[in-house]
Every structure is written in structure tokens, then in C-alpha cells.
Amino acid sequence: MDSGVPEQARARRAHHVRIAERLLAAVGAGDRGAQVACYHPDVVLEFPYAAPPVRIEGRDAVDAYLAIALGVFELRLTVTRVHDCVDPDTVIVEFTGEGRARPTDRAYANTYIAVLAFRDGLVVGQREFYNPVPAAQALTATPAN
User: Fold this and answer.
1) 3-state DSSP helix/strand/coil percent for the chain, to nearest 5?
2) Considering the entire predicted model, what is its pTM?
């Protein structure tokens, strides 16, 4: 139990952790609707290490982006650690992803850290950090011999 942290803040943090877990489960299930339902209308989604870096603003734009992105990779995501933050409206999640790139049918595995900001009980900011090399390798067709 968090000594010195008010019960209301602990409850809000616990709710946000459940939303973060629901969001990642939706990604792993390929359920775009369930994923988008976790986002605030003003959400900003950022992938600073993507090539080129990606920033999408607004739930409708994120939904359109996910319609394409979820068709590229089939993933199983596993949460490995959730970090308690001083601000109960911020959740940092470490997780792994394993699966395949659909266009090439090549295996894919990566580790991630996501910093999630919440407003009104929904994700309003998601900044996700990962190594872009495994994604690029999985999406590159194996040269013919």
C-alpha cells in the first residue's frame, strides 16, 4: 500500500492501470474498437523512434492510423512492469511483443516502454518507445537465393 498517498489518488491510479492493461490487451487481440475506446477524444499518440517519428492527434486520426497499423503486425503483448508515478494521471508500462509481420510472415519481437497520460479516465497521451530495427527487419522480405 502507498503510505502517504491519499486513497482517492490510489484509486485513480489503479483505474488508470486497468485502462492501460485493457488498451494493451486490445492491441494484442487486434481489437481496434476496444483500443480506441480507451482513448480520450483529444488523444495524442507518439512513436518518437519510428522512422520517421510519428505523432497522431485526435481519436479519429488515431483510429484511422490503427486501421492500417493493426493490419501490419500480429502481436501478443505481455506487460512486464508497471511503474507507480507520483502523478496518478501518469502510468509507465513496460511490455514485450511477439508475433509476426503480416506482409512478410516474418517473426517479430520487441520490448517497449509506454508513458500514458490520462484525462477524464481515458488515455489522452501515449508516447511509446521501442527499438525500430526489429520492425524494419520483420518487414523486409528475405532475399531469394
Assistant:
1) 35, 40, 25
2) 0.89
| Residue 76 cell numbers, joined | 501478443
HSE-CB for 112 with a 13 A CA cutoff: 28
Using CA atoms, how far apart are residues 60 and 21, in angstroms rounded to an integer?
21
Q: Are 12 and 5 in contact (CB under 8 A)?
A: no
Distance (Å, whole) CA 109 – CA 27? 15
Alpha helices in 30-121 (DSSP H): 32-37, 59-72
Query: Per-residue pLDDT tens for 54-75?
Result: 999 999 999 999 999 888 999 9
| Alpha helices (H) along the chain | 7-29, 32-37, 59-72, 132-139
